[in-house]
Amino acid sequence: MNAMVKRRVHVAAAAIISADGGEVLIARRPSNVDHGGLWEFPGGKLAPYETGLGGLKRELHEELGVEIQRAQPLIRIHHEYPDKHILLDVWQVHDFSGEPFGREGQAVRWVPMKDLVNYPFPAANLPILRAVMLPTEYLITAEEADEGLFAQRLERALVEDGVRLVQLRAKSLDEAAYVARAEASLALCRQHGARLLLNGEPALLERVEADGIHLTSDRLMSLERRPIAEGKWLSASTHDRAQLVQAGRLGCDFVTLSPLRTTPSHPEVPPMGWHDFQELVERAAMPVFALGGMTRFDANHARAVGAQGIASIRDFWK
């Protein structure tokens, strides 16, 4: 007996961000359709001749009465349902004209980013929630022996560069020194509205109330299940498709993918380049930060090929 061939459905969706960046618009699905009553990011199915952005412009005009002025790719999600394969082509809308309302009778609501987790969404929408709540820049701290200089450079990145996502990487410190630095770093991050992830054993979260854990690729591949609670952020270092698949299996909220370019720290590792990076990101089940020789000048290019943004040590650690 031949296996059932699933329908392939291409859907464009929008994360419409408020002018102050603090809220996002969501809509409730009608009760008489699939996943009725759940909330979603506005959009709809594309016609065969439409591009993602072109179809999204049409859908938002028909559904909400708004016109897109400026948008950027956010994330592309492949999701398997029992009877169909969904490609969600998601765009982050920064500027639009018109006041959104439910032109088709659907409920629409502006929701603070931090409250999105309180709304029920279809499973295919869950990676969008992560992408919307994450910034586009991810600072990985440098090895720094002097605690005063470390704190000075971290605060400069938080204040002057506006960094809002930090990974505390300090392989040269013993556990006691790492915990002390983590406590001081967490205080700085809290002061400036940034999240802090610890690069180390998941058990570190029992000693430091950080926002999550970043797994090395070796630690990622050694695990059989998600090692921390769902309420904390879990990220991981990945370098190939197998590691991306494992990150999805563990329920990682986001990952770094490297090296995109040759780096001074690992000159022996061949870079993947933008083409291979884009192919890997296309099938990732979570937001992906480009890592390896990245600077802020690469941010728009990274977004264009599907990345959440860039991760860097040198570009932020000055």
UniProtKB/TrEMBL annotation:
| EC class of the enzyme, as a word | hydrolase
Under catalytic activity, the entry for this protein gives: 8-oxo-dGTP + H2O = 8-oxo-dGMP + diphosphate + H(+); 8-oxo-GTP + H2O = 8-oxo-GMP + diphosphate + H(+)
Annotated residues that bind 8-oxo-dGTP are located at R29, E40, F41, P42, G43, N125
Tell me its EC number(s), please: 3.6.1.55
Keyword match DNA repair: yes
Q: What's the superkingdom here?
A: Bacteria
Q: What's an example Gene Ontology biological process for this entry?
A: DNA replication
Q: Which InterPro entries match?
A: Aldolase_TIM, Mutator_MutT, MutT-like, MutY_C, NUDIX_hydrolase-like_dom_sf, NUDIX_hydrolase_CS, NUDIX_hydrolase_dom, ThiamineP_synth_sf
Name the Gene3D superfamilies on file. Aldolase class I, Nucleoside Triphosphate Pyrophosphohydrolase
Annotated keywords: DNA damage, DNA repair, DNA replication, Hydrolase, Magnesium, Metal-binding, Mutator protein
Quote the record's binding site residues for Mg(2+): G43, E63
Pfam families tied to this protein:
NUDIX_4 (PF14815), TMP-TENI (PF02581)
Instruction: Give the Gene Ontology MF terms in alphabetical order.
Output: 8-oxo-7,8-dihydrodeoxyguanosine triphosphate pyrophosphatase activity; 8-oxo-7,8-dihydroguanosine triphosphate pyrophosphatase activity; 8-oxo-dGDP phosphatase activity; 8-oxo-GDP phosphatase activity; metal ion binding
What family is it from? Answer: Belongs to the Nudix hydrolase family.
Name of this protein: 8-oxo-dGTP diphosphatase
Which source organism? Halomonas campaniensis
